[in-house]
Write a structure and sequence with these properties.
transmembrane, membrane, mainly alpha, transmembrane helix, about 85% helix
Amino acid sequence: MSLISFPFFIISLIWIIVLLFKHKCLNAFLIAVFLLSSLMLVVSFITFWNMP
């Protein structure tokens, strides 16, 4: 994992925990997992695209 995508991963992880404690339902968990996976995909693609 690159240095650029690591902060995004931490923020997303915190956001998932916040969502889980706020709603305490499976729906929020599934949405959070989907958001995290799509964010990771975008970040890794951008990081790969910008590599020299």
